[in-house]
C-alpha cells in the first residue's frame, strides 16, 4: 500500500472520529437506525474549543501527531460533510417511498 493511500485511510479514520466527536457534542446527530449523521443543534465553535482542550491533554484520540489546526480542520470537514440536512438521508429516502 502506498503512502498516499495510507494517508487517505488515516484521514478517513480521523474524519469518522471527528464525526463521532461532533455527535457526542450534539453538533451533529446520528440516526439510531442507520448510523448516518445529520445536522444537530450543537455549537460548532464549542466543539472546536472542547476538542482543542482534550487534544492538548492527549485525550481526544484523533492521533497524537496532529496539530491543533489539523484537528479543527477535521471537525470542520466532518461537519460540512454532514450538516445541511435535518434528518437522516436514508430515513428521508425510505419515508419518501410511500
Ligand atoms: Zn436513518
Explain what the structure shows.
59% of the residues lie in helices and 6% in strands. By secondary structure, it is mainly alpha-helical. A two-stranded antiparallel ribbon has the order 1-2. Helix 1 (3-25) crosses helix 3. The mean pLDDT is 93.
Topology, element by element:
Elements: H1 3-25, E1 28-30, E2 37-39, H2 44-56, H3 68-82, H4 89-95
Antiparallel strand pairs: 1-2
Helix pairs in contact: 1-3, 2-3
The chain binds zinc ion.
Structural descriptors:
Arc Repressor Mutant, subunit A, binds zinc ion, mainly alpha, 98 residues, 4 helices, globular, two-stranded antiparallel ribbon
Alpha-carbon Rg, integer: 15 Å
Give the ordered list of helices and strands: HEEHHH
Catalogue the ligands. Answer: zinc ion
Number of domains: 1
What structural category characterises the helix and strand content?
Answer: mainly alpha
Low-confidence stretches: none
Classify the beta-strand content into a percent band: 5-15%
Distance between the termini: 45 Å
Please outline the major beta sheet. Answer: 2 strands, antiparallel
Helix residue percentage: 55-70%
Overall, the morphology is globular
Total beta strand runs? 2
**CATH level-two architecture:** Orthogonal Bundle
Number of helices: 4
Give the strand order of the largest sheet, numbering strands 1, 2, ... along the chain: 1-2
For this structure, the CATH topology is Arc Repressor Mutant, subunit A
| CATH class category name | Mainly Alpha
Mean pLDDT: 93
